[in-house]
Queue: 2 jobs
Job 1
Amino acid sequence: MVASKRISGVGHSSSQDKKRAKRRIQEIEKEAAIRTLNGNGQSPNLPPLPKEDDGKGLGTLFSHPYGALPFGNIFLASSDAVRHNGLGDIRPLNDEQVLSVMQFLDAEALARTAETSRFLYVAAHHDELWRDVTLRKYGSNGFDFKASWKDTYSLTQLKTDKNEIEFIPHKPIAMKGIYSDTFFRSWLCRSFALQESWLAVENVCTEKSDELTLDKFLTDYEEKNIPLIVKGATSSWPASKKWNKSYLTKETQGVTFRATSGAAPLPAKFNMKSYADYCDSATEEAPLYLFDRTFSQTCPKLLSDFAGSLKSSCPFFDDDAAHGHDLFSLLGNGKRPDHRWIIIGPKRSGSSFHIDPNATHAWNAPIKGSKRWIFYPPGVSPPGVYPSPSGDDVIMPISLGEWYLSHWNDHVKQRKNPVKSKRPLECTVHPGDILFVPHGWWHCVLNLDDGMSIALTQNYVSASNLPDVLRFLKTRNQQISGCRDRADAIQPDKILDKLKERLQEKHPDLLKKAQHVAEEGWQCAAWADIEDNGPKKKTKTSVLERARMFSENTGSSTLSEEKKDGDEALNRQGNGGFSFSFL
Ligand SMILES: O=C(O)CCC(=O)C(=O)O
Ligand SMILES: [Fe+2]
């Protein structure tokens, strides 16, 4: 980003001033030339504009509401005075740094800043800044979402103050002369068109639910550790028929749900109605995703809408089955790591690349809205995803949008990886179907449909992954998750012994066999090339520093991974790890 100076002619400038101005023009031009405009008139730091293919029209979809244009357009502009004059003495900061400083402002300061100049008007309306002030002030009490974060803040403030002032919704004004990859890129990553080519490949195995036997599932999929879609398995679930905005709102009266985003400083508490409203108008690059692990206790009615049917329609996922599914249940409810979630999010929300927690397998059933999945086999990091050598943290683009827009071409190349077993798998899973997510596979998930997408997921340990789970609990203490923030849960240093104790009582043969296999090594390559436990080698750079370095090298914003986990998600810079990462 250029810390630009005034380059237009100035009334009484000295010849030295003129020389300086000329030098500066040359600098700007050089910088612009380095960024060589690509075919879209954008700098190469931005992904090419995707072609609109969902019939909404490029113009509306891609014009920034406050008029920001990609930085490359400055090459065609007569001056960059808007930024120069608008930032005054802070102009040496780049746009990202300006936004970082503004994160320290409260709502009043933000509103006043927006009045000071055209450039700061645009910067001070960055939706994420208003999200953050709202979450800081009202995030833990719940609030009604209204159209945008600025409106939500204003309305909540007026209500809290019992102020009689009339609420006037904010209407963005498009400014001229704003050239910023920071503003434009973030807008692009939140409003990108879903490309047909992203949805074209379907190479995950499928089975029809009425033809899939338990034995076939266990031998052909679970033991081989490969993903599978079971078609039509959940169509008979009451949840599939009943769950929508009004039903969930009615059945969850008085309950609040947590929603988090890797890009938001704090989690937010929403009631269902407010979250559904948010889904209708969310405009952030990385939307808040509702990932709730407590719903079966807070809304048992929702559990009864699928738990019974799961047993009859998907015997291969039956928690109580004799073949030893869900072995963590031996630890006891509340004591075991988190394992069941309701997941709700708007179009373009979803989960960034992660591996599921504690070496567990999972199933995922979309109830409303389809989901696009990309899988990378165990031990093969997806493009743009950089796990640390210890596996305790991972760096990747801050949003799914950014991953799709920036790394798609590299992903396409991976489809032709000469080693077949390293190639990615891809699929769209529709309501009515259920997906088996084998342990150790990287996966990312994108919600494709308008309104709120609703899904259920459950993680489990069975005979097939027990050896790796035992090995994981023994050697990856730092990465054990789903228990640290709950006092009633068994903590990482105790969990292995407890599990072995319980298995010894209930399934001694299974334990013996699994211990034997575990001693030989990992079954799954996800953890194989990482040194087992031992003193953790301290790297000099923190996750944040590495993220920053990566960002500076690639022009990309990054995120240190977050976990499939409630409050532990807050510690994502701390003991986070890719093996239990989520979102
Ligand atoms: O539905 C989603 O966003 C993804 C959930 C997921 O990653 C899982 O179920 O393992
Ligand atoms: Fe997952």
Note: Confidence is low (pLDDT under 50) at residues 1-13, 32-61, 534-583.
Job 2
Amino acid sequence: MVDNVSQNPEEFLSTPLSKVPCNSELSADVYVKIGDKFIKFKEKGDLIPEEKYNYFISMNVKELFVAKNEIEAFQEAVEEQKKEEIEAIVEEVGEENRPIVELQADIKESVYEAFMDEELSSETVDILKNQVTEFINIIKDKNPSADIFAKISSMNNTIAEHSMNVANLSLLFGMSTGQTHTLVLENLYMGALFHDYGKAKIPTAVMEKPKSVAYAKAITEHPLLGVDMLKKNPQINKQVLSIVAEHHEQFAGVGFPKGMTGDAIYGLSKIVSIANIFDNVCMENRRNKATMYKTAIKVLEYDKGKQFDPELLPRILDAIKLGYGNYHRDRAKKAE
Ligand SMILES: [Fe+2]
């Protein structure tokens, strides 16, 4: 039996937080390391809620600790949960689309790892890029119906899983508006994955005070903060950085941080900005699964050229309606 607080590193082994699924039951007590102390964070049977993941991401926490004698069983249980989640999604999308679901699970782990790292490591970006290329090639090869994108979407509103939703939506929108080249789609997907990287690193203390001046400043600056942090990494190219910088710019010039107008905004940034708003509205309305997609579609339809490029939007709306318009998430999940 390990106490609630311990200073004895001999009692623990670490396990990567990126592998521990959000909102899933923990099979052992878990600890976080603060300074040289191990502090009990959650008990066996508890869930780690999404806001804690955002906190860990902003604090660059990437490991949990489990008592040595329990670690093996804990890691096995985590693997088992991952498999169960994959099977539940495969059941919805069909066996022929299993590779899509499995690759999404791998990408999710890499995205969490990338976000939890204090500095984005080249190794993580390399792995992620390879997974993304493979994912795009599978999608191009299988050409699945648009509802696949709704079925693989996440209901966990952590910054990492929101980013994955935005990346998948952007891929669907990109292909629906005539982008076919793998390299272009790869830039689009990577830009969407990292669009809120700067926001992820805003301290929780600031994010918790949405009426403060510090919050307003951090939000205005997050696209460029993301660019500054990401550009240190040579594998993150200029196109990806443009998407991160411009994902809050609006067609009529009232966005931020620069107030760019119309076609001065990079085409792929326009796509990601639509995907971002769509997923944000879905997440805000996710308690009502019967109408969340319809509500988000309406928000886009009402735009009339203010936020979004009026030439792109109708084609994107067609794709969303095909994929999400009649989809109702009813997959069983313990935490929902
Ligand atoms: Fe953002």
Note: The chain is about 55% helix and 5% strand.
